[in-house]
Amino acid sequence: VFPEDLPGIPPTRQVEFQIDLVPGAAQIAQAPYRLASSEMKELADQLQELTDKWFIRPSSSPWGAPVLFFKKKDGSFRMCIDYRELNKLTDGSFRMCINYWELNKPMVKNNYPLPRIYDLFDQLQGSSIYSKIDLRSGYHQLRVREEDIPKTAFRTRYGHYEFHDMPFGLTSALAVFMDLVN
């Protein structure tokens, strides 16, 4: 019933991810992190997969966050973008991670209410039938506002890329995703 992989750029929806910055915020451009040779191979593979699925595209943005990897429980790598600098601008296998820390600093935070786990458990009381759904690559199902796409840029030794859809690691991403789900 559900596709194994997402077909590409998500459809236009009422909710889109916005990266609103506090007044006076400067652009963040960080150099790529040094990666081990095994991580470089994984990076090349994941960049190709993300490009093939239309999740990312080459970028000439003045913005740029570095990439790092975390080892998953199964031994594979997860790529992450270090958005810590971007998140500071707000008022957030190997896993590829993009460091958006600096970008998150000047971002205006979305205060959409997140459910509390105890409230969710309370709603289940008295139920006898349960179901669940795993929204495969959930963040990739929400577009980034067109003028904010350059802010999602990340830098690697293989090139400079940006996301069409909401990347994991940015401030307010969870709140915006919950808004979409609700």
UniProtKB/TrEMBL annotation:
Domain Reverse transcriptase: 71-180
The UniProt record lists the keyword Hydrolase: yes
UniProt keywords, alphabetically: Endonuclease, Hydrolase, Nuclease, Nucleotidyltransferase, Protease, RNA-directed DNA polymerase, Transferase
Molecular-function GO term, any one: RNA-directed DNA polymerase activity
SUPFAM superfamilies listed in its UniProt record: DNA/RNA polymerases
Protein's UniProt keywords contain NADP: no
Single biological process term from Gene Ontology: proteolysis
CDD domains xref list: RT_LTR
PANTHER family: RNA-DIRECTED DNA POLYMERASE, TRANSPOSON TY3-I GAG-POL POLYPROTEIN
Protein name as it appears in the record: Putative reverse transcriptase domain-containing protein
